[in-house]
Every structure is written in C-alpha cells, then in structure tokens.
Amino acid sequence: MSKAESSSSNQVKVDISLSPRVNSVKPSKTVAITDHATALAQAGVPVIRLAAGEPDFDTPAIIAEAGINAIREGYTRYSPNAGTLELRTAICHKLKEENGISYTPDQIVVSNGAKQSILQAVLAVCSPGDEVIIPAPYWVSYPEMARLADATPVILPTLISDNFLLDPELLESNITEKSRLLILCSPSNPTGSVYPKKLLEKIAEIVAKNPRLLVLSDEIYEHIIYAPATHTSFASLPGMWERTLTVNGFSKAFAMTGWRLGYIAGPKNFIAACNKIQSQSTSGASSIAQKAGVAALGLGYAGGEVVSSMVKAFRERRDFLVKSFGELEGVKISEPQGAFYLFIDFSSYYGIEVEGFGKIENSESLCRYLLDEGQVALVPGDAFGDDSCIRISYAASLTTLQASFERIKKALISLRPAVPV
C-alpha cells in the first residue's frame, strides 16, 4: 500500500451534519425562482420575470447623487452600529410627521435592509417554545425567521372574500400563554391588502388583553398605496406604542433595493437588544447607503412627487392586470390596495392533465407549466401559505406586463376549470 493510500484510509471521517435550527428552515422560493429565471434569461430563453418584489425604476437621481457624493467626499468608513445620528434623527422626524409616532434616535436601529431588522427583532424577543402568530398569506420569510429563533410559527388563514385580512375572532381564539409576537404587514406582501384603521383597532384591543404579546408591524410598502386606502401605523393606536416594533426601509418606495437599508423603531429595551445582535453580526449598515437614505427622507412628505409618480405608474399597472385577469374564466381576484403584487386564485385549473407536461396539481406545478409553456416566472402561493393562489409582481413596465398577460392567457387557453367557480 502506498503512503498516500495508507494516509487516506486512516483519515477520520468529517462530521458534515448541520444545526437542527438550520435544517428546520426552508429556502426562499422567491429567491430560488428568481435565480432560476435569471439563469434561463442568461441562457437566451426569453423569460419574463415577475417573481421578485423589486421596482423597475432607477433610484431617484437626487438619492443616487447623495451616495456618489459620499464616496467622493471620503464618507466610506464604518458607521456607528445603530446607524448615523443624522439618519436616525431623520427617521425620527419622518415617523413623527408621517406616522404620528414619537421616537428618539436611541430607539432606532438602522440595518442592512428591513429583512435584517425583522430577523433581529424576532431573535431579540422570542424564546424557545414561544409562538409567533402569522396571518396567511404571509411573506415567505416570517415563519422561517420564527424557526431560526426556535419559536413556533402559528399560521392563521385568511380568505380572498375578506381581502385576505385577519379575522380578529380567529386571532383571539389562537392566542395562548406561549404567544409572544404577532406579525402584521400592511400593505401586504403578497396580497396588496391594506388593513383599515378600524380593523387594526379591533386587533389592538385583543393584543392589549395579553401582557406577553408584542406586535411587529412591517410597513415597508406604506407609501405604495392607492387612494382611497390609507396607511395606519400600528404603534400609533392607543396603548400600542409600548408593545410595537415598527419596521420600515428604503427598498420599495425609493427604488433602493440594492442599497440594502432598513430600520426598526420601538421601546428602548427591545431596540437595544436588536442593536446588540447587530453588533455581533454585521455591525452598522453601509455609510454610503445611509447618506443616500438621508437624501431620500429629504424628498418631502411620503417621498414627495418622486414617489407619487412611481405609485401612479404602479396603479396603472394594477388596473390593467385586474381588468385583464378578471376577464379570464375561473379566476378569483382581490383587488390590491397597496404594494405591487396580485395574489390570484387559479385553483379552478388544478386537476387538469396537460399533454407533454403532466397533471397540474397545485400552485407550484401551475407555475412550472406557465414557465415552461408561457416563459413567465411567477411565484407559487404555497410559498406564502396559500396553495390556491399565485403571486404576480407588477413591478415591471406596462409593456412587459401586457406581454406577460398574453403569454399566460395563451398558456391557459387550452385549459378549462376542473371545478365550477
């Protein structure tokens, strides 16, 4: 036996097992589908990608210029862990003026995107065995973040006939002594639903009865809202400031997805805990992005004309898609009041056998069929906790959406609803 063979045979086998915590987490389907569609496009397949929640607009010039100037002026060093005082002060002003909630800079932590802010909040307040209440359809990451904190996600279904809004009675009946966090997202990803103030007040009354229950209010889409719908910050409701963690950011309204900038606001003890977690993980957000964030908040109330022009375009796209899909057989739609997603019920097409493809059994197989047959990338509803629907992002030009609708319509034309609607 050679020396190399002898050495190899005596080698100790490496333990390649992973943490149970990581094994309990599912990968993000939106990320996976977006990556797959991008790979197809790079291979020359003319795929229309409507999976990612990313505005197609460029970052407004005044914001981009602030970032460029930061680089030119040498503003490229580490920032304070919680964010620059300049940006946190601007965020406090924004929350007071636009949302009616008062904070001081030490009650704000700026992170590398709202996603990081949410995860840190869940890790900060949840103990193993705690329950995190999540209305479905939900953003794909909420349940997985709960699992990363060794907490149990408790999923509460909503109905398309109720515009996917949480029933307060269902909430109250599912609260236990283990309930620690309720996650609300308004306007919603994936449904575009907006919680009316009266409904939030009913939810707040229920929350108030349970001393351990906190609320994480994800308000990342607050400025992308269509009149007459209006946005209400949960922390502004009577008695809710003390138990609400408000998350927001710059990605959606200001078309700053790649800048990676978000923040959380709340009572100091919770925010200090988030700050501690961040100090041992990523440290402060990009100094350059933070300068751009200050410029974004300087655009005026709700982003001023720059943001309102983008919202106007989103509304035009929404109206086109709602009208177009509403004319298809066997389709159910709840018209979104905010964000830039349609969550459409295509379940009447399930159960159909397609020659050369197989049976369309659920949202995932229908999405695969539409990608294969129509070359349009969408996200199956089961990723959001509702297998009857498919999410379509209309953060794309109207021309692109018109082309995608024609492709989807053509792909479905040979299919007939398997059950009456």
From TrEMBL:
Pfam families, alphabetized: Aminotran_1_2
CDD domains: AAT_like
SUPFAM superfamilies xref list: PLP-dependent transferases
Keywords assigned by UniProt, alphabetized: Aminotransferase, Pyridoxal phosphate, Transferase
Annotated ranges, domain Aminotransferase class I/classII large: 46-400
Cofactor: pyridoxal 5'-phosphate
Family: Belongs to the class-I pyridoxal-phosphate-dependent aminotransferase family.
Protein name as it appears in the record: Aminotransferase class I/classII large domain-containing protein
Species whose genome carries this gene: Gossypium arboreum (Tree cotton)
